[in-house]
Amino acid sequence: MSLIIYLDGKYVPEEQAAVSVFDHGLLYGDGVFEGIRAYHGRVFKLHEHLVRLYESARTIAMEIPMSMEEMQEVVLETLRLNNLRDGYIRVVVTRGKGDLGLDPLKCPKPTVFCIAASIRLYPEELYENGLAVITVSTRRNIPVAVTPRVKSLNYLNNIYAKMEANLAGVSEAIMLNADGYVAEATGDNIFIMKNGVLITPPAYIGLLEGVTRNTVMDLARQQDIPVEERVFTLHDVYNADECFLTGTAAEVIPTVKVDGRLIAGGKPGKVTRKLISAFRELTKVDGPLIFPDEAACCCCGS
Ligand code: PMP
């Protein structure tokens, strides 16, 4: 079935949703994007994703040609037109059409598009049994060159790492920063539990400050689990009591094997399981309703 796509002010069938070969998003990876989820008729953490989109755009000195409120409406309307209550939304803003040189000044107007589609999740089995990952040799981009805090269209750094993971036969990989500290996974943030404290690296060491990451830290604090943002090494991961990854697509996924070492005896830990269920509960009630006339069910949010 053909999807309806938002593209530069119009909602068009996907066959007509085409951008120019002179678009600098395509020619140079010059642009920013967001991946967002809809659950139970609501758009989860929509505001937080839009804040990050506009902050990413500001850092690359690109002005998104609409307000955040208008962008929120684009996301909701794209979901409505595709009759989606659950799904994955991709909002993309590129530098726009220019010439073959890289100068952004030659691009008068950013291109904006929004896709809403169904999502294929990791199989439920992985949430129950956990994921095996490796550490790859590709280091995360250094923040003083291309800051990983910008969710930019240039994902080559992560794609290098993903290829290394693929070649090793695993689906995710841990990336270190240039100093050898654990940064994040190719498309997810990383957490460890040690002696009752939940630990994740601080954004300034060079990682994307995930919306799911921040949500999980809030959920942990609500459950009186101490949370620390601090640097750690692979030694800390290998000796962690628990480990998990977080991301919009992956949600909260237990990580039970790292570079051949079993974590927590190779089973998802207690805190990880608690956070998975707290996260799933939150998806039922957080975010604006896609179809505002639908009264949300008071017990399950659906
Ligand atoms: N790190 C990277 C590199 C990512 O691309 C993503 C998003 N897929 C994340 C972390 C997780 O961020 P979020 O929870 O906002 O999806």
Secondary structure layout plus pairing:
Elements: E1 4-7, E2 10-13, H1 24-28, E3 31-39, E4 42-43, H2 46-59, H3 68-81, E5 87-94, E6 111-117, H4 124-129, E7 131-135, H5 156-168, E8 172-176, E9 182-185, E10 189-194, E11 197-200, H6 211-222, E12 227-229, H7 234-238, E13 242-247, E14 251-258, E15 261-262, H8 270-282
Bound molecules: 4'-deoxy-4'-aminopyridoxal-5'-phosphate.
CATH topology of the largest domain: D-amino Acid Aminotransferase, Chain A, domain 2
Number of strands: 15
Overall geometry comes to: globular
Secondary-structure class? alpha+beta
CATH class of the largest domain: Alpha Beta
CATH superfamily of the largest domain: D-amino Acid Aminotransferase, subunit A, domain 2
**Through-space gap between termini:** 25 Å
Order of helices and strands: EEHEEHHEEHEHEEEEHEHEEEH
Ligands, ions, cofactors: 4'-deoxy-4'-aminopyridoxal-5'-phosphate
Number of domains: 2
Tell me the major beta sheet.
Answer: 9 strands, mixed
Structure in words:
By secondary structure, this protein is an alpha+beta fold. It folds into two domains: 4-117, D-amino Acid Aminotransferase, Chain A, domain 1; 124-282, D-amino Acid Aminotransferase, Chain A, domain 2 (Alpha-Beta Barrel). Helices cover 27% and strands 25% of the residues. The protein has helices at residues 24-28, 46-59, 68-81, 124-129, 156-168, 211-222, 234-238, 270-282, and strands at 4-7, 10-13, 31-39, 42-43, 87-94, 111-117, 131-135, 172-176, 182-185, 189-194, 197-200, 227-229, 242-247, 251-258, 261-262. The strands form two sheets. Strands 7, 8, 9, 10, 11, 12, 13, 14 and 15 form a nine-stranded mixed sheet that branches. A six-stranded antiparallel sheet has the order 2-1-6-5-3-4. It is globular and about 55 Å long. 42% of the residues are buried.
